[in-house]
Amino acid sequence: MTAIALLPTVAALRAQVRLWRDAGQSVALVPTMGALHAGHISLVEQAKQRADRVVATIFVNPTQFAPTEDFSKYPRTLEADVAKLTEVGADAAFTPTAEDMYPEGFCTSITLRGPATAGLEDRFRPTHFQGVATVVAKLLLQALPDVAIFGQKDFQQLAVIRQLTADLDIPVEIVGAPTVRESDGLAMSSRNVYLTDEERAVAPMLNRCMTRAAQRIRDGEALEAALTPARNKIASVGFEIDYLEVRDAVTLASVEGRYRKGLRMLVAARLGRTRLIDNIEV
Ligand code: AMP
Fold first, then answer.
1. Least buried of 94, 177, 252, 265, by fewest C-beta within 10 Å?
2. Protein residue with least CA distance to atom 10, ligand 1
3. How far is the centre of ligand 1, averaged over its atoms, from the C-alpha of 200 (Å)?
4. Pairing mode of beta strands 147-151, 92-94
């Protein structure tokens, strides 16, 4: 196993990427907030298929958390993360500090409409996508990769990033990778460590109810008629639902009626103190 390059600053990242570029090699970027699990690792594997060199970024971005959210207790496991990245064969880990990303006097941010105001995550986390868009734009401009890989797990985020790179002419291909799940269907998430044993036992109901509702929709049932029992079931096992909706998979616009091609079911729900999100193709 070759050791990966640890790049703690933007200058170190740029110097490393310059060396690869000079050698004619292509570069893929995998942005993460660390606490890496098999979902993140699958993004690195996809990246390796698509470029000669892979940089994973580990940065718990303060600006995408609201003051009431879990920034300070978000899991930080840098040593284990670097070991996992080494094992999967990433070439470098970019681990900037908040001071490096947001130096004294930093005052620019990116705000989008369109997918960022679809009325899903943005309804419950109104400042979230401004933080995500700004940090992702920075990471893309710092690394200038050929391709960047993001998970479909954060489906609205993926749409926001596609819109952002198109609107700002950032020359990068954005790839959306499928959600990696535990064997019982729960979408892997760094936040799953917050779940108590009882909550962990209930958590797969989210995906199970969505899968059932999606099947009923494909079988011809009206969207709302299929979603209502799913909402009731999810609530009855102890979730507080923020939303469970079917949307257009590209624009995230609201849809009505019955099945057609290109629909996505998205959910966000709180179980105790943990907020889970998931989505599936309908
Ligand atoms: P995070 O560290 O949660 O910000 O996630 C970093 C990247 O990994 C994002 O592009 C996520 O969408 C992606 N990701 C998170 N969980 C999963 C999963 N279970 N399967 C695939 N990708 C994921």
1. 177
2. 150
3. 19
4. unpaired
Neighbours of 194 (CB within 10 A): 19
pLDDT digit string (tens) for 42-98? 999 999 999 999 999 999 999 999 999 989 999 999 999 999 999 999 999 999 999
Atom 22 (ligand 1) nearest CA: 151
As averages over each run of 10 residues, the pLDDT of the chain (282 residues) reads 91 98 98 96 98 98 92 93 98 97 97 97 97 98 98 98 98 98 97 95 97 98 98 97 98 96 98 96 98
Query: Hey, where are the domains in the chain?
Result: 5-177, 190-277
Report the nearest atom of ligand 1 relative to the CA of 190: 3
d(Cα 50, Cα 146) in Å, to the nearest integer? 9
CATH number attached to the domain at 190-277: 3.30.1300.10
- Residues taking part in catalysis: 40
187: nearest Cα among 121, 71, 120, 279: 279
Give the residue, by CA position, lying nearest to ligand 1 atom 14: 151
Identify the CATH number of the domain defined by range 5-177.
3.40.50.620
Residue 222 Cα to ligand 1 midpoint, Å, equals 31
Question: For residue 37, what are its two tokens?
Answer: 């699990």
